[in-house]
Amino acid sequence: MSTKKVNVAIIGLGFGAEFIPIYQKHPNANLVALCQRNEAKLNELADAFGIDKRYTSYEELLKDPEIDAVHINTPIPNHGEQSIKALNAGKHVACTVPMATTVEECAEIVRLTQETGLTYMMMETVVYAREFLYMKELYENGELGKVQFLKASHQQDMDGWPNYWPGLPPMHYATHCVGPVLALTQGEAEYVSCFGSGTIREELIKEYNSPYAVETTHIKFKDSDLSAQVYRSLFDVARQYRESFEVYGSKKSVEWPLIEGKPLVVHTAKKPEPEIPEEVESPDYAKLLPKEIQHFTTQGVYDSEENEHLSFTQGAGHGGSHPHLVHEFVEALVQERAPYPNAKQSANITCVGILAHESAQQGGAIIKLPEFTFS
C-alpha cells in the first residue's frame, strides 16, 4: 500500500460526523479540518476527535492550501453549489447524495472535472453496502448467469424531517435505488419513463407543486438489452423503511426481504421447485478494507442512543458502506484513478431521478439522459 497521504476536510457534521474516525484511521488520509456553521457543535466534535482546524465559513475553508479534498455532507440543496465552489478552488470532492438538484449543476460539475483534472465522487451508500457487494461478487463470478432485469426501491416516511424535505418529489432523491441498478453492470441510463401514483396531502403538494405519493421509473440502459424498474415514496404511504435492490439472472436471482433484518432470498434455476429459493445472510465485506478501518462496517459514531442520526437509524447503518466509501475515494486519489461513481457516472445516476420526475409530470413521456452523463 502507498504511503501517500491525502489531506481531507469534512463539511457538515450531522451525518458527516460518521466519517470523522474513518478518515482519522485510514492509512492514506489526514483529516485536517472540520466545517460547521454551528460553532458550538463544531467545537464539541473537533474537541472530541482532537482536530485543530475549525471553520464556520465554507468559503474560508476553501482558501486553505493544506486541504487537498473536501467531503460534503450538507443539506441536499447545497450539494451542487458547494461542489462547484470546491472544484473551482482546486479541491477534489466527495459529496453525499444526490450530486445536485438540477441537470445544469450536474453538467457544471462534470465540466469542471474535465477542465481541471480534479476528482469527484458521489458517496452513494447502497453501492458499497454489504448486500450489494454480495450480489456484485455473484455477478463477477458468473453465478448469476446472464443478468436479465434489475429492480430497486427506496421507501421512507419523511414526516417530521426539517427544511426542504416536506413535499419533495420522490424521484428527486432517488440515487439509493438508481445507483445499484446501474452500478452492478457499470451500466448507464439512456432514457427514462416515469409515472406518478396517488396523492399526498394538500399542505405538502404546494411546497414543490408535486402531488405524487409514489413515483415509478423504468430505466433503459445504453448499449444494452437491459432495463430496470425503480420506485420511491416519501409521504403518506404505509411502509417500513426499505432500500431494496434485486437482480434477476439466468442462473440465479437475488431478492430483497420484505421486512428489514430478514435474510436475502437467492433463487437458483433448474432445481426442484421447493428447493429454488434459499434464505442467505449477506456476508460482511470488511476484508476488502485496510485493517485499520475494517471495524467500521459494523459500528459508527452514532452507536449510542443519544447520538443516533435519523438517516443512520432508519437506514440500518447503510449496510456497512461508510468505510468502503472513504477507502474508494482516498485510494482513487492516491492511485490517480477514477473512483466509482465518478463525475459522469454520478451525473447519470442523479439525472435519472431529476428527469424521471419531469417524465411523471408529462404523463410518462420518454426523456433521454443528456450526453454529458455518458462515458
From TrEMBL:
Pfam families: GFO_IDH_MocA, GFO_IDH_MocA_C3
Domain annotation Gfo/Idh/MocA-like oxidoreductase N-terminal: ranges: 6-122
Top-level division of the source organism's lineage: Bacteria
Gene3D superfamilies according to UniProt: Dihydrodipicolinate Reductase, domain 2 (3.30.360.10), NAD(P)-binding Rossmann-like Domain (3.40.50.720)
GO molecular function, one term: nucleotide binding
Residue ranges annotated for the GFO/IDH/MocA-like oxidoreductase domain, each copy included: 132-254
InterPro entries in UniProt: Gfo/Idh/MocA-like_OxRdtase_N (IPR000683), Gfo/Idh/MocA_Oxidoreductase (IPR052515), GFO_IDH_MocA-like_dom (IPR055170), NAD(P)-bd_dom_sf (IPR036291)
Protein's name according to its UniProt entry: Oxidoreductase
Originating species: Maribacter cobaltidurans
